[in-house]
């Protein structure tokens, strides 16, 4: 199996700035794998990925083409909230510019309008996604299959927050197996412009390459160029995904 | 009545070749106070060994040390570490009247179940090893796991041994009940630089509380080379000695077991007996166990969380051999395979991986692809994969990294093929 897909043209198609928000605090469930996946696929497609880890207190690069964020523990979430509100305006500018973003679990919640704690306190979020999350005693845990604009998507959810979409807010996908946003309305995640929020770990991108490439396409378009995909053998990823789907939808 | 029913179930399970927890399940349904009663009269107490990594090895070492000192020890050394598993192994050595016939109990318990156990029977002593990400679908969050261990320590009545180098564990000293003894195990400053390879630095934050200064009651690991080491208590020391199991993690487990034994034995603690016992401890099934496969060594290495897999790759990475990786996602394995992305597989790149197997074989192969590790074959069926692997690499040393239920299955096939002792057959009083 050729793992590199490298034809010696590596990076020739242009440089893509990939920002990982809070890799120390918000990446407890292997979500760093999404960054690894995007960087590798960019290389395999012939682009040069530059990964910027964004830590609390550091400066968000102005020329970000793609942002990813993951899930954390409550203690990790508390450590990033100040930095996130300091950067709120800059993030909104990036969203308006059409910069693609993939926010998983804890970061999905923080990109929402608000989080209501178990004892009723309302913590405001960025409001980029029009969703509200209610803290819960019960966790929603298990494997998930979604129907999305990018085809069937598999992953694993593990969250105690129960999220509700405001009227007019699109979900990321519809639940075919699992709990999704709240276990009742069959929606999972949220999508606005080029921003996707989702509870799915797995991590979500490696086994769902169509989603990864959709983000990469949008990122490349941020540079003013159009996306020229390379040849990637996704047989192993397709097997991993379809086998999960077959197991779970049986 | 409960004892008879449980014993019958145990025989039935043995005949079926089934798992080690079934007979315990039968008894627990019949009499929930069974456990409390059975362990109520042990003169030297009840010791619980828990933490994310190293429970089975450390328990085995501690039991060996205590037996070498002449104690009759009840334990659950099959790696079946839930309350029901404890009851199952108990049925073999129970007196009429339902009490265990031993001087002391040393029990390996899973973090979540340790607390459930303590609600029924308060441990006299606890040995708390470490906290790392493990099966987050069960324990939810690492902070929560640390909290479970702290609550177990609070309920311990006589003495607690803590890991000096794990801030989640060492800070538990502030929560102990009055009159409970505390001591520590840790590594000598000369090897402190190697700790990050065993710990989860990325999810840890600076801790305001600094670790206490070790005293002569605390055991410190001082390796002399890759194989041999001493455990130093002030100006006295145990060793030098070499274990049968490889790696720094096993040496730290030995240091933990030795420190707990010293607390339990007090004046009776004998350095020479410790050395004698530790030298003879064979790696538990699947924990670096070496099987003679057609005249070539086959190492069976259990991996179940990022820290454990990283340590295993560090321990074995220096001698690359034909390798198979088997990943299942049953409850006991952890159902979420995301953790594979928190392990770096660079050390396998040069030699590649011969076979990926298990229910999540393709997810494992996909993970390896992102580290540019070539996978020769992918075969989800464990029996098929093992057979192929043993045939193709018949004449060379081999290694299998596997999750818990994959290990149980592979170990059974290997036992049949190479006439190995039955899993769990080591349980003796």
Taking all Cα atoms into account, the compactness measure Rg of chain B is 21 Å
- The CATH architecture assignment of the largest domain in chain B turns out to be 3-Layer(aba) Sandwich
Strand residues, percent of chain A: 25-35%
Find the CATH topology of the largest domain in chain B: UDP-N-acetylmuramoyl-L-alanine:D-glutamate ligase
**Rg of chain A (C-alpha, Å):** 17 Å
Largest sheet of chain A: 6 strands, mixed
CATH class of the largest domain in chain B: Alpha Beta
**CATH superfamily grouping of chain A:** Class I glutamine amidotransferase (GATase) domain
Helical amount of chain A: 25-40%
- CATH homologous superfamily title of the largest domain in chain B: Mur-like, catalytic domain
Span of the ends, CA to CA of chain B: 23 Å
Order of helices and strands of chain B: HHHEHEHEHEHHEHEEEEHHEEHEEHEHEH
Distance between the termini of chain A: 30 Å
Biggest sheet of chain B: strands, sense, closure?
A: 9 strands, mixed
Based on the structure given, which CATH architecture of chain A is correct? 3-Layer(aba) Sandwich
Tally of strands of chain A: 14
Give the number of domains of chain A: 1
Classification by helices and strands of chain A = alpha/beta
Number of helical segments of chain A?
6
- What is the mean pLDDT of chain A? 92
Shape of chain A: globular
């Amino acid at each position: 199996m050729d793992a590199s897909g490298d034809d010696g043209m590596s990076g020739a198609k242009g440089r893509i700035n990939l920002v990982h928000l809070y890799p120390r605090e918000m990446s407890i469930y292997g979500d760093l794998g999404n960054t690894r996946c995007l960087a590798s696929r960019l290389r395999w497609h012939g682009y040069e990925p530059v990964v910027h880890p964004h830590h609390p207190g550091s400066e968000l690069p102005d020329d970000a083409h793609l942002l990813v964020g993951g899930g954390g523990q409550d203690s990790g979430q508390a450590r990033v909230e100040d930095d996130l509100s300091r950067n709120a305006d800059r993030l909104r500018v990036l969203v308006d510019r059409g910069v693609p973003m993939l926010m998983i679990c804890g970061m999905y919640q923080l990109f929402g309008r608000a989080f209501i704690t178990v004892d009723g306190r309302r913590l405001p979020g960025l409001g980029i996604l029009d969703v509200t999350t209610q803290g819960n005693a019960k966790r929603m845990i298990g494997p998930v299959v979604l129907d999305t604009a990018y085809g069937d998507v598999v992953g694993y959810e593990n969250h105690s927050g129960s999220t509700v979409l405001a009227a007019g807010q699109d979900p990321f996908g519809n639940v075919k197996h699992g709990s999704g946003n709240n276990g009742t309305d069959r929606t999972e995640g949220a999508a606005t412009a080029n921003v996707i929020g989702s509870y799915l770990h797995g991590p979500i991108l490696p086994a769902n390459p169509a989603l990864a490439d959709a983000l990469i396409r949008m990122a490349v378009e941020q540079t003013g160029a159009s996306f020229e995909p390379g040849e990637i053998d996704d047989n192993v990823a397709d097997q991993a995904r379809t086998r999960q789907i077959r197991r779970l939808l049986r | 009545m409960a004892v008879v029913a449980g014993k019958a179930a145990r025989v039935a399970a043995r005949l079926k070749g089934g798992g080690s927890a079934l007979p315990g399940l039968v008894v627990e349904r019949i009499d929930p106070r069974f456990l409390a009663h059975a362990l109520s009269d042990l003169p030297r107490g009840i010791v619980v060994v828990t933490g994310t990594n190293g429970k089975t090895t450390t328990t085995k070492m501690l039991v060996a040390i205590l037996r070498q000192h002449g104690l009759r020890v009840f334990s659950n050394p099959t790696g079946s570490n839930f309350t029901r598993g404890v009851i199952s192994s108990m049925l073999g050595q129970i007196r009429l009247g339902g009490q265990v016939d031993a001087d002391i109990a040393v029990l390996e318990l899973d973090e979540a179940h340790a607390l459930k156990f303590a609600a029924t029977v308060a441990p006299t002593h606890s040995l708390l090893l470490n906290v790392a990400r493990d099966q987050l679908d069960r324990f939810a969050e690492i902070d929560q796991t640390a909290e479970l261990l702290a609550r177990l320590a609070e309920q311990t009545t006589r003495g607690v041994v803590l890991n000096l180098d794990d801030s989640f564990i060492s800070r538990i000293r502030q929560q102990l009940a009055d009159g409970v003894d505390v001591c520590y195990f840790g590594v000598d400053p000369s090897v402190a630089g190697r700790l990050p390879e065993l710990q989860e630095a990325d999810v840890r934050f600076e801790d305001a509380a600094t670790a206490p200064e070790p005293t002569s009651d605390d055991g410190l690991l001082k390796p002399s080379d890759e194989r041999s080491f001493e455990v130093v208590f002030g100006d006295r020391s145990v060793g030098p000695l070499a274990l049968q199991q490889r790696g720094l993690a096993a040496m730290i487990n030995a240091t933990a077991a030795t420190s707990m034994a010293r607390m339990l034995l007090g004046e009776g603690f004998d350095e020479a007996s410790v050395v004698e016992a530790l030298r003879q401890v064979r790696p538990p099934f699947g924990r670096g166990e070496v099987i003679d496969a057609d005249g070539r060594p086959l190492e069976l290495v259990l991996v179940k969380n990022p820290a454990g897999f990283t340590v295993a790759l560090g321990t074995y990475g220096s001698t690359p051999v034909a390798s198979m990786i088997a990943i299942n996602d049953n409850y006991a394995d952890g159902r979420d395979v995301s953790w594979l992305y928190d392990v770096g597989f660079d050390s396998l790149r040069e030699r590649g991986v011969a076979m990926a197997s298990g229910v999540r074989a393709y997810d494992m192969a996909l993970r390896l692809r992102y580290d540019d590790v070539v996978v020769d074959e992918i075969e989800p069926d464990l029996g098929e994969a093992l057979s192929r692997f043993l045939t193709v690499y018949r004449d060379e040393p081999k290694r299998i990294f596997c999750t818990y239920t994959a290990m149980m299955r592979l170990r059974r096939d290997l036992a049949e093929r190479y006439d190995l002792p039955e899993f769990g057959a080591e349980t003796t009083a």
